[in-house]
């Protein structure tokens, strides 16, 4: 049986229901792949892969993502990483809302 492994082509974020003032269709976020990934093989055994953390600034859509609009030829730092890992998303400091803003 051939060995296969799930790998990332692109990572996209949608913050459905979020709002900005003034209104924008996206906000800049920092998306981080935390490195360690655990995958389960068909035989039930676990494989753990330790890799350095990788982060990238990325636009997060506020209205949803159309998979037909994704461009996998635009490689990100996450390309080839396992999706079965801990991910962290944070709004970049300059994008954080002021107190009292929605």
Task: Please provide a written account of the structure.
By secondary structure, this protein is mainly beta. It contains no helices and five strands. Strands 1, 2, 3, 4 and 5 form a five-stranded mixed beta sheet that branches. A hairpin with a 5-residue loop joins strand 2 and strand 3. The model has no long low-confidence stretch (mean pLDDT 80).
In short:
By secondary structure, this protein is mostly beta strands. It has strands at residues 13-14, 26-40, 46-49, 54-61, 85-91.
Features:
35% strand, single chain, 102 residues, 0% helix, mainly beta, elongated, 5-stranded mixed sheet
Distance between the termini: 53 Å
> In which range does the helix fraction lie?
under 10%
Q: What share of the residues does DSSP label as strand, in percent?
A: 35-45%
What is the average per-residue confidence, as pLDDT, rounded to a whole number?
80
Please describe the topology of this protein.
Layout: E1 13-14, E2 26-40, E3 46-49, E4 54-61, E5 85-91
């Amino acid at each position: 049986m051939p060995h296969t492994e799930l790998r990332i082509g692109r990572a996209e974020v949608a913050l459905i229901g979020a709002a900005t003032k003034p209104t924008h269709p996206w906000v800049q976020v920092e998306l981080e792949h935390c490195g360690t990934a655990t995958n389960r093989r068909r035989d039930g055994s676990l494989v753990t892969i330790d890799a350095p953390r990788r982060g990238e600034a990325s636009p997060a859509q506020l209205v949803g993502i159309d998979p037909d609009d994704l461009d996998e030829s635009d490689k990100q730092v996450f390309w080839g990483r396992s999706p079965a890992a801990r991910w962290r998303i944070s709004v970049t400091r300059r994008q954080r809302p002021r107190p009292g803003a929605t």
